[in-house]
Amino acid sequence: MARSVEPLVVGRVIGDVLDMFTPAAELTVHYGAKQVHNGCDIKPSSAADKPHVRILGPLVSSSLYTLVMVDPDAPSPSEPRLREWLHWIVVDIPEGHEATEGREMVPYMGPQPPTGIHRYVLVLFKQERATEGGCQLPDGRANFSTRQFAAQNSLGLPVAAVYFNSQKEPAVKKR
Amino acid sequence: MAMAITTDSGSSGWSMLSLKSALPPVTSTASSIKLPCRRRSTKCPQLVRSFSALSPVNPVHSLGFSDLNSFEHNFTIIDNGYRFYAMRHGRRVPKLNRPPDQRRALLRGLTTQLLKYGRIKTTRARASAMRKYVDKMITLAKDGSLHKRRQALGFIYEKQIVHALFAEVPDRYGDRNGGYTRIIRTLPRRGDNAPMAYIELV
């Protein structure tokens, strides 16, 4: 939840997924007890359920936000043919509240990286107005484009982003 | 050289005659000793040779000549002519706490894994030691000839990866000149607080 975007540049999130932006909002993401900061490691088993995403800000403000979670390294970081894999879209999140209070357009899918270490990016956009229900759902989860989604729904540049790493856990314990 | 000592059986000291007969004939072009001071060599060549057989310490020092203690004479001279410094000044090969064969195997394994998975997490020293080898493999793949392919097969452990590398590198890295990896430092490892890093293909 850093104010500066440098970790995102170093991790090449800005470049692969997003364009350069200035952070205008603050976002905290928790998987259980663990808080997500840029570049931390989260196990897929701990991330199977939705995280608690909270947008910090005054509660009575009327601005609404859209949250998108994508994986730019699908199926493997050395060959990202399915860049980006869509995991979650929530729209109409009121400021100061949790993401559960918004409308979930694409249901949450936990990280399941088949090979390699994948980055999972959570991007927050500010909406100009409440979505009347007209925004089109993407066809499948593969080959999603965050930039295109933002352009189609006139969301502009993101206001906050955070990313974490995840890799496949070893299947069975060795005897 | 050891012969010179064994002829010492009966006499109390060393006699020059027995030494001279036992040792190989004196040649002025002997490369095993580069005596820094030429004029001394004519006086006592035999003694100096026998001393050097005993220890690699600079024989001139053991004789106590005092005007040869400048910098050039402070390195030991091993008898095949190489210089051996006591300090590590200027040596840039990372040893990774392993003997040379294990070090080579470790780097081969790490580059194989990086080329297979695209991003791996290791210690910072290993990640920065690997860069050279990963760049070398990608350069071999850029060339693409059979000889280079066989050289890559001799380094990378899995041949599928070599063939996949040679197939896709021209598209992916055709324009880029060097610098095919990126290292991102991360939190230290819990067990031993080793500084860790992600290394990934750009």
TrEMBL record, chain A:
Species per Swiss-Prot/TrEMBL record: Herrania umbratica
Q: Which family does it belong to?
A: Belongs to the phosphatidylethanolamine-binding protein family.
Which Gene3D superfamilies does this chain map to? PEBP-like
Q: What is this protein called?
A: Protein MOTHER of FT and TFL1-like
CDD domains xref list: PEBP_euk (cd00866)
InterPro entries assigned to the protein according to its UniProt record, in alphabetical order: PEBP, PEBP-like_sf, PEBP_euk, Phosphatidylethanolamine-bd_CS
Which Pfam families does the protein's record reference?
Answer: PBP
From TrEMBL, chain B:
Keyword annotations: Ribonucleoprotein, Ribosomal protein
**Sample GO molecular function, one term:** structural constituent of ribosome
Q: Does the keyword Ribonucleoprotein apply?
A: yes
Signal sequence coordinates: none
Top-rank taxon of the source lineage equals Eukaryota
| Pfam families for this protein | Ribosomal_L17
Give a GO cellular-component term: cytosolic large ribosomal subunit
Gene3D superfamilies noted in UniProt? Ribosomal protein L17 (3.90.1030.10)
**Swiss-Prot/TrEMBL GO biological process terms:** translation
Record's InterPro entries?
A: Ribosomal_bL17, Ribosomal_bL17_sf
Into which family does the record put it?
Answer: Belongs to the bacterial ribosomal protein bL17 family.
> What is the name listed in the Swiss-Prot or TrEMBL entry for this protein?
Large ribosomal subunit protein bL17c
Give the species: Herrania umbratica
> The organism's lineage?
Eukaryota, Viridiplantae, Streptophyta, Embryophyta, Tracheophyta
Q: Which gene encodes it?
A: LOC110415789
